[in-house]
Design goal:
This protein has 236 residues and is α+β, with helices and mostly antiparallel strands. It has helices spanning 26-37, 49-61, 63-67, 102-110, 166-173, 183-195, 202-208, 219-234; strands spanning 81-87, 90-96, 128-131, 134-137, 150-152. It is built from eight helices and five strands. It binds FE2/S2 (inorganic) cluster (2 copies).
Length: 236
């Protein structure tokens, strides 16, 4: 069994709303303290741990109010919560269990199944999507945390006329997949890798793509594809 220090720890699991102070519990507070103090519990792939830590601190400021609520007055943690997600430039208003991950919301509620579930706990990168232009692991991110944020999935990469993103085309050109299961996550991560400025060499690409596993071991072709797309993306 993997030891996961993240939002699925049993201590934190029952209460997950970020917006309603009445829903906070001791478990929630413990989770937020962990998130505010250590990058290990943050599902971001890129370097924006500080942003989430800052948001978590704001939540912590409200915990005193929640602690004063009698236990019987708190809503049940599994009551649906309404959230509006901006996905691929369209708004989707959903009533979801606040414990629903972004990955499950995308696949099961919105019907966007291009984002894949591999491990389900932050180990493989198959679920990578972009939030406000940065890559994140959607299996480790609660959908209710992303109200109003701009989410991009593999389905949102094509242009208005259906033309492929240069990274998608490069994966095809270089045969950078076999079964294809990891490919949506690889492509989303590869685009971010280039945009972050981490595609300067094959070694750098390997390093910054190391969070995306490929059971078919298409790694050499993936690196070549990223190099091709990086050149084309510079001019776009
Ligand atoms: Fe999210 Fe594996 S499914 S990292
Ligand atoms: Fe099969 Fe990557 S192409 S897991």
């Amino acid at each position: 069994m993997h030891s996961v220090d993240g939002p699925f720890t049993t201590d934190a699991y029952p209460v997950m709303s970020t917006r309603d102070p009445a829903r906070f519990s001791a478990g929630r507070r413990s989770f937020l303290r962990g998130a505010a103090s250590g990058a290990a519990s943050i599902p971001l792939i890129g370097g924006t741990a500080a942003a989430l830590a800052q948001a978590s601190r704001a939540d912590l400021d409200r915990e005193g109010t929640a602690a004063q609520q009698p236990a019987g007055a708190r809503p049940r943690p599994d009551e649906p919560e309404t959230v509006t997600l901006r996905i691929n430039r369209q708004s989707h208003t959903l009533a979801i269990d606040p414990r629903t991950t972004l990955l499950d919301a995308l696949r099961d509620q919105v019907g966007l199944t291009g984002t894949k579930k591999g491990c389900g706990h932050g180990q493989c990168g198959a679920c990578t999507v972009h939030v406000d232009g940065q890559r994140i692991l959607s299996c480790m991110t609660f959908a209710v945390m992303l109200d109003g944020r701009e989410i991009t999935t593999i389905e949102g990469l094509t242009g208005p006329g259906g033309q492929l993103h240069p990274m998608q085309q490069a994966f095809i050109d270089h045969d950078a997949f076999q079964c294809g299961y990891c490919t949506p996550g690889q492509i989303m991560s590869a685009i971010a890798c280039v945009q972050e400025g981490h595609a300067g060499s094959a070694a750098e690409i390997r390093e910054y793509m190391s969070g995306n596993l490929c059971r078919c071991a298409a790694y050499p072709n993936i690196v070549t594809a990223v190099q091709q797309a990086a050149g084309l993306m510079k001019g776009s």
